[in-house]
Amino acid sequence: MTFIPFALVLLIIVATIGLGIFATRKAKTASDFFVAGRSVGVLMNASAISGEYLSAASFMGIAGLVMKNGYDALWYPVGYAAGYLFLLLFIAGPLRRFGAYTIPDFAQGRFDSPMFRKIAVVFVLFIGFFYTMPQMKAAGLTMGTILGWPYWAGILVVGTVITFNVAIGGMKGITLVQAFQYWAKVFAISLPLFVLMSVFGGYNSHLGETAAALKASPRLEIGLKATVNGAEKAPLNTISLSAAEGTIIHFEHDGKYRIAKISPARKPEKGEDPISAGTFAFPVAKNAAMDDLRTQIASGKPFDIVNGADLEFATVPVSKGGQPVLKDGKPVRTGAKIEFEKGGSVTFAAAHQTSTANAGAIVPNAPSNTKWLNPFGPLSGKWGFPLLYTYSLIIALVCGTAGLPHILVRFYTNPDGRAAKRTTLWVMVMLGGFYLFTPMWGVLGRSMMPQLYVNGAYDSAVIKLPTFLENKLLGQILSGVTSAGAFAAFMSTFSGLLVSMSGAFAHDIYGRILKPKSSPEARMVAFKVAAVGVGVVSMLLGLMVETFDIATMVGWAFAIGAASYFPLLLLGSWWRGLTKYGAATGMLLGGLLSLAAIVTNMLLDKKVIVLELPNIVRALMEQPAIWGVPLSIISMVVVSKLTAKSIPADATMKMIRLHAPEEMGISENYIEA
Amino acid sequence: MQDDAAVDKKLTPEEAEKLMHRVMWRQAHLSLYVAAVFIALLIVLPLFNLFTPALAATPVMGFTLTWLMLGVLFYPITWLLSAFFVKRSNDLESKISKEGTK
Question: How many domains does chain A have?
């Protein structure tokens, strides 16, 4: 019955192409291509902005984050939606009244500085490609999940369809498509959920059950097979077992497993005695082959499991200098953390059950109910500074949203400043209406599909949960609906990114930097060529990021946006004294240092570089917004004060134009539509 | 679109300065006022979770109080703030337009 999801995905692709061709009939001028003729109505534009914004990270990623981390992850959808309030309060109106084609136009026009346009273009492309890669990855992954297609196939389909749409119709062509895709996504995220919750219980009843058993952890169904990843999926190739009770892992007879390392799941504190692999793990059966395996485990070196085995993993009391470590008067224990080099299908069972007879094993890698349900859990508490981490995450999401060039460029398509503000209000309503549903998928995923914790495939919860319905046909249809919604998500976001990046090439690089005297028609041709070029590069980049985490890649784009474009637009719109030197310094310092911190942290995580750093430094590297945004703003202010002589002579008039209502007759578009 | 060079010429630097303050600062004031409420919410909720965990975990219709606030109620609160801002901002802009450039 997998033809059903395929048919629905095909339907959304055909609708995308068809609507694109339909909307394109009216796209004739350069203004149509770059800013849809500045004539997009409020509701249409709000739908299109929402459609463009709801990406793979929103459609599949948030459900996964909530399932994995619980409460802390609720900040993601809230931050993604509430970030628009900052955009509304400080940026939407002035940006529209500036009336350009691209965000680099603002950079040049506000400071009369062609040099600054170049810096701004580089950031548009940086953020654009970082944001494109996860969309491509999600496309490849989803096609693989629902149809078993190879990774590159989904990328090729989405990449080709959208490149075609953007090249033939530009901004005008994609506006209608993105608006349609918003409504398709809302339908796809909500309808299957209503059906699932009517059968398996509602949002509050699942949360209520979790709250009623705070000390418990979710358990796997008895006999349920789960897949563990090998080293090719690192870092998702580890299994952390619960400290509450021992676990038996059944390795299958025809599987070929290789375990690289067995260590304590709880991170040892200074001075604690090391625990050897042999203390944690031993074969259940006693015979010559198993005795041999036992010796291999005890050696502490990587070992293979062939011809199957049942291994018991015990929980071990932690000691320090031979004395047990106590917490609240009780001895602290830890479960094992197993790192696989070659994975495969295994079955988990609880060892030595006493009070919970006939229950399955505690789900590996899953936080306990209390850590999951309550604030300051595994996400923010990772480095031991949960409050700091939470605030930094909030700043990144809220300021980052207001600093994404491919979203900001859509504000030029409004007829005037007031329309830009009303549009933003509707965007917030539409996004809230969508994001409200995303955590529900994560909550259902935790109670219904805990095996996803084993191999870290949280992102597939949205696609797979509907197949749990008793009625298999309905399950396939609903899974097809969410798959189609996911496709709408990658396609609409990628189309916005492609317009923004093609605009940067055709308008900024070709039309302003290389050939300032080129005609609007020539720039339109350049736009089409750029769209095809960027489309191809995006697909190639997508092929390279198969092992990267979707949410992490989107996080990079937000962190750079928050510390570069947000301060530029905030101060550029409201402070007359901002100079090009100040703005450039702040953008480069904030944006590049934040990027450097995130990338270094990722390399440390993947153990590409080894460096002992204090936990607070690691927390600040993983979430740099709390220092990156202030650093950018402060350097803008300080350097501007030092270079106050270079404030453009007509800066006062520029500020008036940015803020004066259109009917005063002072406003003028930087580029007339 | 009006010939803006004419507007430029009509205004002396002092007049332009005054106009900028009149047009920009009142709008800035409104934006900062709404932003302050929003930022206060963002600062207070984590503190509420940190210092009164028991209250944050109070069950409300199956939700914990803090899950209900962040996962459900936060959205309508931001809608109200935006709606308030857009209305005030439009009123203010009409007023500014009526006052004209001088």
Answer: 2
d(CA A582, CA A573): 14
Could you report the per-residue pLDDT of A526-553, keeping only the tens digit for each?
A: 999 999 999 999 999 999 888 777 777 7
* Cβ-contact A454, A228 below 8 angstroms: yes
The ipTM, to two decimals, is 0.91
pTM of this structure: 0.92
Does A403 lie in the same domain as A352?
no
Determine the residue of chain A that is closest to B63 in CA distance. Answer: A204
Residue A672 lies inside a defined structural domain of this protein: no
Domain that holds residue A131: 3-199+376-664
Q: Which two tokens stand for residue A59?
A: 């459609």
- Contacts (Cβ under 8 Å, ≥6 apart) of A426: A42, A43, A46
Structure tokens at B26: 């009142």
pLDDT in tens, A283-328: 999 899 899 999 999 999 999 999 899 999 999 999 998 899 998 8
Question: Which of B10, B23, B60, B73 would best serve as a mutation to test chain A binding (most A beta carbons within 10 A)?
Answer: B23
B-proximal residues of A, 427-446, CB under 8 Å: 428-429, 432-433, 435-436, 439
With a cut of 70, say whether residue B1 has pLDDT above it: no
Token couple for A553: 């890649």
CATH number of the domain bearing residue A154: 1.20.1730.10
- Crossing angle (nearest 10°) for helices A417-435 and A151-200: 70
Collapse the DSSP code of A382 into the 3-class scheme (helix H, G, I; strand E, B; otherwise coil) and give the result. coil
Lowest-confidence segment of A202-206, A353-357, A557-561 by average pLDDT = A353-357
Q: Which of A82, A37, A94 is nearest to A421 (CA)?
A: A94
